[in-house]
Design a protein that fits this description.
The chain has two domains: about 140 residues, Jelly Rolls (Sandwich), CATH 2.60.120; about 100 residues, Homeodomain-like (Arc Repressor Mutant, subunit A, Orthogonal Bundle). The strands form three sheets. A six-stranded antiparallel beta sheet has the order 1-2-9-4-7-10. Strands 3-8 form a two-stranded antiparallel ribbon. It has a two-stranded antiparallel sheet with strand order 5-6. The chain is an alpha+beta fold. It comes from Microlunatus phosphovorus (strain ATCC 700054 / DSM 10555 / JCM 9379 / NBRC 101784 / NCIMB 13414 / VKM Ac-1990 / NM-1). Keywords: DNA-binding, Transcription, Transcription regulation. This is Putative AraC family transcriptional regulator.
Length: about 280
């Protein structure tokens, strides 16, 4: 993890420099469904376990993961090829020994469009890809060792996904998510529904089927990400003003959301950021 603040990443003691991340473009073939590919690798050496936390985006991931012999991650022995549904709270993983992950982050509605699976049935789950998409994609981890090369894993994952892309594209709800992410005036579900010309009921149904969570969750998640990023960039920011700017009812609403998701208040988080950068 670098010292540069990044939306969605949660600062933890000892996380800077503990792992290496890269991001790769999806390529023209997969761009309608995949946002980007990514990789993370680590070697803890003699250091103890490290918990990494991410305030997840409304997106699903197909991952190829590896680690030391006998290691277990997300309840599965390594190596493994896994599907991660949308995480409704905070994504947490404990990094131990040597390991790595190469993943495809789908667009918010991309995995539903690519697989035709009901996204709501996958929320808050991690499942073997083999069980959902078959052995060809689900066995990409076969024969992997703890010193696997991310570039080669990426090549295999990209090729497998390209080989199973849909015959035709479909128009999904993804552009609505993009609008929520970029339009700070949209802070309520009824505003979103009015802005895109859908009834609230239709909006709710399509979000759950195509993304896996409702529009209220998406609105709240983007606000929380922005709040954390603001504290990372300026731990001295006025919390009351920040809460109002991001669409929270007041500072108490911001604090309650922070505590519910991250287990600490915005003030405590800001103090920890300040101590790590000073």
């Amino acid at each position: 993890m670098s010292s540069t603040p990044e939306r969605g990443l949660v600062r933890r003691p000892g996380s800077v420099g503990a792992f290496t991340t890269h991001r790769y473009p999806p390529g023209a073939v997969l761009a309608p469904w995949v946002e980007h590919f990514w990789s993370v690798t680590w070697d803890r050496g003699g250091a103890g376990p490290l918990e990494s936390s991410v305030i997840s985006f409304p997106a699903m991931h197909v991952t190829v993961e590896w680690g030391d012999q006998g290691s277990v991650r997300h309840g599965y022995p390594m190596p493994a090829t896994l599907l991660h549904g949308v995480v409704s709270r905070v994504f947490r993983v404990t990094l131990t020994g040597r390991g790595g992950v190469v993943g495809a982050r789908f667009r918010p509605d991309g995995f539903h469009a690519w697989s035709r699976l009901d996204a709501a049935t996958l929320t808050d789950t991690v499942q073997p890809v083999r069980d959902l998409l078959g052995a060809e994609i689900g066995s990409l981890h076969a024969g992997m060792t703890p010193d696997a090369e991310p570039a080669e894993v990426l090549r295999k994952l990209r090729s497998a996904l390209e080989g199973h892309r849909p015959d035709k594209m479909s128009v999904g709800i993804g552009p609505v998510v993009d609008r929520i992410a970029t339009d700070s005036t949209l802070v309520r579900v009824d505003q979103v529904a009015h802005a895109v010309g859908l009834s609230e009921r239709t909006l709710q149904r399509r979000f759950r089927r195509e993304i896996g969570v409702g529009p209220k969750w998406v609105l709240s998640r983007f606000r929380l990400q922005e709040a954390v990023l603001a504290l990372e960039c300026d731990p001295g920011v006025d919390l009351s003003e920040l809460a109002i700017r991001l669409g929270f009812y007041d500072q108490a609403h911001l604090t309650n959301t922070f505590v519910e998701m991250l287990g600490e208040t915005p003030a405590a988080y800001a103090a920890r950021v300040r101590s790590q950068v000073s």
